[in-house]
Amino acid sequence: MRKKRILAFLFILIIMGNVINIPIIKANSLEINAKSALLMEPTTGTILFEQNAHESLRPASVTKIMTLLLIYEALEEGKIHWNDVITVSERAAGMGGSQVFLSPEEEIDVATLVKSIVVASGNDASVAMAEHIAGSEETFVQLMNQKAKELGMKNTHFVNSSGLDADGHMTTAYDVAIMSRELITRFPQIHEFSTIWHDNLVHQRKKGEEVTDLTNTNRLLKWYEGANGLKTGSTSKALYCLSGTAERNGLKLIAVVMAAPDHKTRFQEVMKMFDYGFANYEMVEGDKKGTVVGRIPLIKGMEEEVEVILEKEMNFLLKKGAQSKKENMEYHVETPPSIEAPVKAGDVAGEIIYKIEEKEIGRSPLLIKKDVQKANFSYMIHQLLDYWL
Q1: End-to-end CA distance of the chain
Q2: 325: domain range?
């Protein structure tokens, strides 16, 4: 009974930890020339700067981050494959705005369409993929809104998969950062496409081959060291938007700007946030996932104790400075005094809390490392004999 109460208490603590809001560190030294902006470190989800980050605005082609997230999920689940050949519908080919000039009945593979979405922001490619995954763009948009809800994007509603201006098609800088974080952390291979500066798309037409030039719309790739993504967007109503990603010395950043006044400003303001982040913060690597951090005595088990391991890799976002160094880091392991067998690998058995100068910087659940069965009669007799002798 005591064991159940302890484990129930630990479970409640862990659940409570999962619903705590994303930590925010306010930066008062930045002023961004855009309606809305946000800077996030994606590994921990810490917000380093925000400016009017929860105002609902038109996202333009930044919408395609959600489209790409659903594409990569469908690939992961085996619903579609990179070499699937898609026949482009008349509706997809007729999309306005930015496009890669697909024609009706053109046959093109998934990999090429994804590249066209990421590099050249093809609206036609986005709709073609939406129809391939869900049967229609309307059904795909339902999946987009469902995923937004799952991610906690409370101020987002999608109407299409491309980002063309439409009534009710709105999101926020905060929500854009959330879906950007989900995409680059779950599917870092997106950077294989988002770092392409220039490529070609070869169309097989009846009258012969035609080539569409694919030049990346993200000028950060040329203008900023460490830039590796992610998505631009602009329309007459949305103005100029950007979710930019960059990495230096193990520190990753997402910077979002919405409704910047012009093409160049959106890049300048994202670079300004990047400069702030890289100048003031560092990522310190801690213990790896699966590291043994303690042992718990077992009652009535086939072994006397069981090891507990980290559920996840521990990395710490620290403010640069003497007091933030790794050598000042301390940790405290919270586990029950004992557990009654049987136990299973992966069961939650406690928590580890990391601190610097008494300030918490991270925590992780602890998991049972391996299965241990309840002791049988012969094992118990053997243990008693060992004890007596």
Answers
A1: 33
A2: 2-19+286-388
Q: Are residues 275 and 292 part of one domain?
A: no
| Beta-bridge partner residues of 201 | 212
pLDDT per residue as tens digits for the range 256-276: 999 999 999 999 999 999 999
- Compute the average pLDDT of residues 313-324: 77
Among 259, 282, 305, the domain boundary falls at: 282
Catalytic residues: 61, 64, 121
Q: Are 267 and 125 found together in one domain?
A: yes
pLDDT range class, residue 355, cuts 50, 70, 90: confident
Instruction: Enumerate residues 6+ apart whose C-beta is below 8 A from 170.
Output: 56, 57, 58, 59, 155, 156, 157
CA–CA gap between residue 375 and residue 373 (Å, rounded): 6
Q: What is the spatial distance between Cα 205 and Cα 334, in angstroms, rounded to a whole number?
A: 66
* pLDDT, tens only, 104-120: 999 999 999 999 999 99
Phi, psi of 144 (to 5 degrees): -60, -45
* Predicted model pTM: 0.84
For 272-385, list the strands marked E by DSSP: 281-285, 292-299, 305-310, 315-319, 329-334, 339-340, 348-356, 359-368
The pairing of beta strand 339-340 with beta strand 329-334: unpaired
Give 36 or 28, the one with higher predicted confidence. Answer: 36
264 Cβ contact list (under 8 Å, min separation 6): none
Which pair of structure tokens corresponds to residue 296? 């718990």
Q: For residue 320, is it within any domain? A: yes
Q: Angle, nearest 10°, between helix axes 64-76 and 137-150?
A: 90
On the question of pLDDT at 39 being above 60, the answer is yes
Burial (0-12, 13-18, 19+ Cβ within 10 Å), 302: middle
Q: What does pLDDT average to over the chain?
A: 89
Residue 244: C-alpha distances to residues 40, 53, 103, 161, 310 (Å): 11, 15, 31, 20, 31
Distance (Å, whole) CA 238 – CA 140: 22
Tell me the CATH number at 259. Answer: 3.40.710.10
Angle at 195 between CA 52 and CA 259, to 5 degrees: 20
Q: Is the sign of the CA dihedral 90, 95, 101, 107 positive or negative? A: negative
For 324, which DSSP code?
G
